[in-house]
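Crash report, auto-generated. Payload:
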Amino acid sequence: MTDTVTGTTISPTDHEDHGPTTFLTKYIWSQDHKVIAIQYAITAISVGMVALALSWLMRLQLGFPDTFDFIDPAGYYQYVTMHGMIMVIYLLTAIFLGGFGNYLIPLMIGARDMVFPYLNMLSYWFYLVSVLVLMSSFFVTGGPTGAGWTLYPPQSILPGTPGYEWGIILMLVSLVIFIVAFTMGGLNYVTTILQARAKGMTLMRMPLSVWGIFVATIMGLLAFPALFVGGVMMMFDRLLGTSFFMPAIIAQGEALQYNGGSPLLFQHLFWFFGHPEVYIVALPAFGIVSDLISIHARKNIFGYRMMVWAIVGIGALSFVVWAHHMYVSGMNPYFGFFFAVTTLIIAVPTAIKVYNWVLTLWRGDIHLTLPMLYSIAFILTFVVGGLTGLFLGNVVIDVPLSDTYFVVAHFHMVMGIAPILVVFGAIYHWYPKITGRLLNVQMGHIHFWVTFIGTYLMYFPMHYLGFVGVPRRYFAYEDAVFIPESAQTLNAFITVIALIIGAVQLLFIFNLIWSCFKGKEAGPNPWNATSLEWQTAETPPGHGNWGPTDPVVYRWAYDYSVPGVEEDFIPQNVPHAKGETHQGRDDDTEGV
Amino acid sequence: MSFLHTLMSKPWEVGSGQVIDRGRVCSTSSGKLALTAFFAIITVLFTLLTLGFFTRMASEDWVPLIEPDLLILNTIFLALSSMAFHGAWIIVRKQQATAPASSPPPSPGSPQRQNKFRNGLMALGGVFAVAFILGQVLAWQQLYSQGNFVNTNPAITFFYLITALHAVHLLGGMFAWGRSAVKIWYGETTDKIRQSLELCTSYWHFLLMLWMLMFVLLVLDNNGKFDLIAICKGILLGD
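Recovered output after restart:
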């Protein structure tokens, strides 16, 4: 049943116009969305491992200060900066949109490829160049920038900040190249979803993964220009001595050439990008986790329409909350009040999504597979991170907690750990389609439990550190009398846990490689899923995805456990049986 | 079907979407849709630059810039370039209306003259665009020779930045123009030439409109006397 592709025959030439013929065109200069997706994912995971190693170095210093001679204050700030930027931009954004977006969009909507395959290929190579430029900053005079991932001027481009010489320049150049890459890829994703769906695949029949990626991409296309403008202006300030962001400054008794610039302007530009960026990472995660929960609980998603509306609503609202990152910047208090209100409003559609995930699990046939474990872990972690966000969204609570470890714990839970748990869940889920083999379950369980429990052991104490006033961005706290001894003990504990969690990620990487060759054969549809990517003629799908016939879609992606149907799933490309009705199905969905 | 109507449909109902959806939201070509999305991105980019311009304009060190007169001539060049593309597009549209889409461009008689005219207009569009870019470079040179360096004061910095970013976008358009020229050179079908020209024409019109807005912005500079500026300053800087 699952091998059957019900569809219409198309001319063979329709999908062969960019077919690979040599090793180079098939695996290196490939225009096939699946190969590009894997290229994106491998690059993102590789650079993510660098960021992970940097976090180890940071934690070694914080947990055991005065122990490691090779970590100096400048190095520490460089690790912090590069860890943050790599994780947010070059790992999470790239893997969700470049990796999963590229792999899943055409397969899930029944297209043969992206509408602009050449542009898609260019997108990856620009991304790779941006990564290489960023990595090159480790090898230049002064090393990478240590300005903090927000790159706030004036300190980011002043002598004395680590990486002043070349690091900051390479960082800005790399970001500009990344934005060009993202724009090329993003235009492709949006156009493909709007214009290249299979017959019958209405927008409201698309799996929520595609909806999440779609809205996140639109957000990225509209938000990244702010970072682009900020980056270019800062480059002007650094290289040409202009004063977009640089006020009059006296350094070491000498007046610098800068005058009249506004550092706050940069903060506005940065966070106009930076806050939507949170949802650029979160929305694909929301979409993917919705699909994982539905598939592994064998139940239709609760409130599909409301889930779509919530994704669109969150996407729109995320553009009017940016200044809640700037409550302590000295801006007008009325401005802060406005942003506190919008921040609380955006919690509504987000909460709707959480309720709907829980209600999808309710009375479902829950299979505790690895993707399901990761999905449940995501819900818990996202709720914890989201709740602390309510604290920080309010001006009066944010002001005392600002720049403490409470903030570090909050954003790691909500946009670090939560999305990465979805990345793991999604990899365990779609790996069989990508390679034809299942990931090793034993290794997967070790990876899951250590990661999941470990993150809580790491970040719960961090909230406490924030409450007692331990500030973030400090190399050492030796002389701070207000920090109790117990805080240092906790820091050492967190470091040990962080090292263990980091080590178990190496097991995950090993599993990815080992299972590729030795993993159990998966077959075409190991999870008995309904969405189109599991209905391809070949596994892994060949070039053009669908063989000689295009799929035709007859139903939504959530026909699980349909009453009166023998199988507990009905693929999207299976026509309705004569007399099939939706009567008797859970009424949960229909009210929304 | 409107987007709102789409969002209201109930996909779980048997029979919903019985009419097979073609999988496209509109009949527009993918290229045109992507270009429209790109316009949105460029609009955001220049809107942010404009906001930055107004914010920075409110500061005390802002010295109004007297823009070179050459910019008026450059604007005329860009307008002529845009008109030339529009003319070429009108011709190719007429050609397509009278000939089957899959056939190569007709060669003998009057259609041949039409082809020549179309190609001439396209070439002219490119030449005027190059003239615009060279004119902008010349304007930079004039400013530079007057001692107006990029870091002299913020008004000049914005002038260099905005004109440079606009020129970069036009250079990107020149790449597309080159591809269209190659298509014509290799005798592509009228349909393919039309698609290519349509995108070029839209892009040129957009860049012309954008330039005119930016030109107005650059000459609007009045030493921070606008109430609007005071409002922006109050909101953004908390003054």
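Post-recovery validation: Residues 58 and 76 of chain A are 6 Å apart (CA to CA).
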